[in-house]
Amino acid sequence: WDVLRVLDYLATRPDVDVSQIRILGRGSAGIAGGMAALLDERVQSILLTQAILSYQSIVDCEDYSVSLDWFVTGILQHFDLPDILASMSPRPVWIYGAVDGNGKPVSETAARDAYLQRVPEHSSAFRTLRFGVESKNDAELYNNWLQNG
């Protein structure tokens, strides 16, 4: 809700080009950013860094480091975070430095494989997803995303 209200506010500002609104979701803010981007088409692209890979990754962990305020009762009966982000297609989604339910980094291959379990590889939705490991130089990653995402 908060992210959606921020989008409303940005849309009222004369110094904001609404056609260029993007969301950067770092850590647990990736969940809120992803859900807001799905619900509001004003978001042109999203970059998630150090964000949880999926709710399923939490279930798969013996222990988890995700705060309870990010849990959504019964969500996995209907969808998971990969479904949400793939639904943004054709808008680009960048997933860099994803983490598991314990907050441990997930390899680019593991992240891609987790999404392939939910999104067909040859679908247009999968082609809008971009995976990578988090850069040592955040500024370079952010610039690349702003220029190409």
Summarize the structure.
This protein is of the alpha/beta class. The chain is 38% helix and 12% strand.
Distance from N terminus to C terminus (CA atoms, Å) equals 24 Å
Shape: globular
Instruction: Report the portion of residues in β strands.
Output: 5-15%
Let me know the average pLDDT: 88
**Low-confidence parts:** none
Q: How many individual β-strands?
A: 4
Helix content: 25-40%
Radius of gyration: 15 Å
What's the quaternary structure here?
single chain
Describe this structure in words.
By secondary structure, the chain is an alpha/beta fold. The chain is built from 7 helices and 4 strands. The protein has a 4-stranded parallel sheet, with helices on both faces. The radius of gyration is 15 Å and the shape is globular. It starts with a helix and ends with a helix.
Attribute tags:
149 residues; alpha/beta
Q: What secondary-structure arrangement, pairings included, does this model have?
A:
Blueprint: H1 2-12, E1 22-26, H2 29-39, E2 45-49, H3 55-59, H4 81-86, E3 93-96, H5 108-116, H6 124-127, E4 129-132, H7 138-148
Parallel strand pairs: 1-2, 2-3, 3-4
